[in-house]
Amino acid sequence: MKHFSHYPLQKHNTFGFSVQCADFYQYEQKEELQQLYQQGVFNGKWLPIGGGSNLLLLNDLDYAVVHSQINFIRSEKETDESVWVRVGSGVIWDDFVQWSVENQLGGIENLSFIPGTVGASPVQNIGAYGVEAKDVIREVEVYDTKDNRFYSMDAASCRFEYRGSIFKELKHLIVVSVVYELATKNYSLKLEYGNVREVVQAKGDESLSTVRNAIIEIRKSKLPLPEEIGSAGSFFKNPVVDAQLFQSIFEKYPSMPYYSLEDGYKIPAAWLISQCGWKGRSIDAAGVYEKQPLILVNRGGATGADILFLMHQIQLSVKDKFNILLSPEVCLVE
Ligand SMILES: Cc1cc2nc3c(=O)[nH]c(=O)nc-3n(C[C@H](O)[C@H](O)[C@H](O)COP(=O)(O)OP(=O)(O)OC[C@H]3O[C@@H](n4cnc5c(N)ncnc54)[C@H](O)[C@@H]3O)c2cc1C
Asked: 35, 68, 101: which is the final residue of a domain?
């Protein structure tokens, strides 16, 4: 276990904010969490972080941050058509995707190049290009910081939803490993989303590695690379509205993109933000990404408070124009 005091978090948040935490604990074995329990770390305020790619750190944290470096990928059982793979929470998500593709295991290739760690994948129920982590997660092993014990939760108990899960409520749980079921044969590639099929076909063959390369190419063309421009990916969730509100907006904007759901209509937040004229705009060093207005960026030297101010301004204009309150997908951390 490594422990640092007054630890800089600039390299641990993809916005690149220059903030620090009072204590930073980095553990490689799950049992080390029990030492932290004995030391009373979990009695006060504390925060688990992975790659910091979905955090808006609003100021210095006068409490402890715990960071997993539990690194393993292990096959646990095989069925006729799949393998169950247990992965440590500290593994970089995209390293796991690359491993799965190299081993001809299907299921997560569309989730290529999403920043962050395996530990956060069930918390956020990460998703992209028509696939979500919940499609393949079978079990999540957690450490309960109240009871000082480890246990496993099946997928149903995780209550996965769009960019969320039970772990957003049960903040006393730390994810230590995740079991994914990946297909060894008969997997069907998911190419329907956006221009994925087109880019895959242009590459000549339909294999797991071609899909992975296509997804990486598409993402690089649309999304800011964290090492070049600070962001936390999509800042807002796409709102779901009821039929009445949908109709009233649709009458005014018949070209509005939308998806019909069982419980309403999902409207792309990027479209709403663009309609309010925010695309490419900035307030001081906090900006709205030119190529994708759902992404708020640090144009250099922005603070969490700058991004928060921009977030509020965008929320106000969207509420004013469409009567929709955008909620952040990013975790606000004080
Ligand atoms: C350029 C860019 C593109 C992105 N694209 C996508 C995308 O396509 N799809 C998508 O879904 N997301 C996307 N994201 C968001 C981000 O990559 C994901 O949310 C990712 O899962 C965050 O992982 P992390 O390890 O960085 O988590 P962090 O940001 O460190 O933490 C996120 C949340 O999880 C909690 N957490 C972290 N580790 C643990 C743990 N071990 N146990 C319990 N709680 C934990 C934290 O407390 C926090 O609440 C993108 C981000 C960026 C910067």
From this structure: 68
Q: Which of 46, 49, 56, 68 to mutate to test the pocket of ligand 1 (most atoms within 8 A of CB)?
A: 49
46-67 pLDDT tens trace: 999 999 999 999 999 999 999 9
**Structural contact between residues 180 and 91, judged by C-beta atoms closer than 8 angstroms:** no
Determine the distance separating the centroid of ligand 1 and the alpha carbon of 25, expressed in angstroms.
19
pLDDT for position 186: 87
Domain range for 127: 73-222
Residues with CB under 6 A from ligand 1: 14, 47-55, 68, 89, 114-117, 119-121, 123-124, 126-128, 167, 174-175, 223-224, 226, 231-233, 331
Instruction: Say whether both 275 and 144 belong to one domain.
Output: no
Number of domains in the chain: 3
Helix 93-102 to helix 208-222 angle (10° resolution) is 150
Q: Terminal CA-to-CA distance of the chain, rounded, Å? A: 25
